[in-house]
């Protein structure tokens, strides 16, 4: 990619490939429609979702191997979850979630 940033085209293509390989996995919505999601992913559902935050950063969220109501956030840059990211997580996964931040 010659040092260029990943775009929504790259991320959405990857999510479509994952959805094809794992059809029973919830989430993997287009990053372009996420701000308009009206119905959150039901609690207890096995889900994976890539989210765009802070104008230039991608994160991975997952409920795989999580307790009921828990969401894992895999993050490579930031060490805390800001308010706007938490609001997006609540919109995608529902208001009563507990988020576990995992930093490599």
What this model shows, in words?
The protein is α/β, with parallel strands linked by helices and about 100 residues long. It has a single domain (about 10-100), classed as TATA-Binding Protein. Helix content is about 25%, strand content about 25%. The chain has two helices and five strands. The chain has helices at about 10-20, 85-95; strands spanning about 25, 45-55, 55-60, 70-75, 100. It has a five-stranded mixed sheet with strand order 1-2-3-4-5, with helices on both faces. Helix 2 (about 85-95) links the parallel strand 4 (about 70-75) and strand 5 (about 100). The longest helix is centred in the N-terminal third of the chain and has 14 residues, at about 10-20. The radius of gyration is 13 Å and the shape is globular. The mean pLDDT is about 90.
């Amino acid at each position: 990619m010659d040092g260029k940033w990943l775009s929504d085209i790259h991320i959405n293509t990857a999510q479509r490939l994952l959805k094809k390989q794992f059809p029973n996995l919830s989430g993997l919505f287009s990053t372009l429609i996420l701000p308009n999601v009206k119905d959150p992913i039901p609690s207890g559902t096995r889900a994976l979702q890539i989210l765009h935050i802070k104008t230039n950063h991608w994160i991975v969220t997952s409920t795989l191997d999580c307790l009921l109501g828990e969401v894992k956030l895999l993050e490579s840059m930031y060490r805390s979850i800001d308010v706007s990211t938490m609001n997006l997580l609540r919109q995608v996964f529902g208001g009563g979630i507990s988020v576990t931040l995992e930093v490599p």
